[in-house]
Amino acid sequence: VVTYTTLIDGLGKAGKLEEAVSLLREMEKQGCEPSVVTYSSLMASFARRDQLEESLSFYDEMIRKGCIPDVATYSLVINCLCRSNDVEKALEAFGRMKEESWEPSLGIYKTLLDALVRDEKIHLALQIFHELEGSSLVPDTFVYNVVVNGLVKSNRVDEACKMVDSMKSRNISPDLITYSSLLDGLGKAGRLEEAFSVFTKMSEEGCEPDVVAYTSLMDVLGKGGKINHALTIFRTMTKKNIAPDAVTYSSLLDSLGKEGRVKEAQEIKRIRFLANQENP
RNA sequence: UAGAUUGGAGC
Q1: Pick from A236, A240, A235: which is nearest to A271 by CA?
Q2: Closest nucleotide over all strands to A13 (CA to C1')
């Protein structure tokens, strides 16, 4: 079994999926029962190449054959289901693994929380997050970021701010992504002053704003009628040698267009053209 | 078998 599994794993990692599957059939024909590792390895190989349904089909197959899934298998199943936007089934699998007394990993929580946020199920996400807090796992910046982003996307910016406070009090450092989410949320809620103060504070705390943070700030300023301020930020960004990207231009041009600022829009387009010339 | 998952615009 181990020999076959090792070979199947090797084939799968090399992207030779059909060959891996034929070897599985071959080992069965030889009366060799594939193990949970064999199936999980195949699932991982298919998932790696975005063949989610195929990956899940091996899960079904192992269950049919009475093979018991382990944590790694569940992790793969939940990943696949979340990536196919089937959060309900992912939650079911999550419930099943807990019933079977498997300890979900932090990675599983991250995947599941993110999927819930994308599916606009913030309530469930918070519930799962609570569960995580009650477990022996230690949440990291990444998990907090997922939840902060979820709160922001559901227009619950105050709770997002509280979440950031609570991570600090637990000595989990907010990072560039945490602050960018928060800045974006505050800005989209029309709280421009606070958004700007997050922007200032982040550099003070050693998180230098990147192109995403700058763009986000400019975007909310532009949409909030502070287009001149947005243009100032654009210049600051250039001075700091942070290259605007396609999203930066698109956001700025959109705001300028809506305000009828044709001259400035032309100027920005010229800058974009020149930048594209230099950096094709 | 250890993968996958977090922030910005328009459409």
Answers
A1: A235
A2: B1
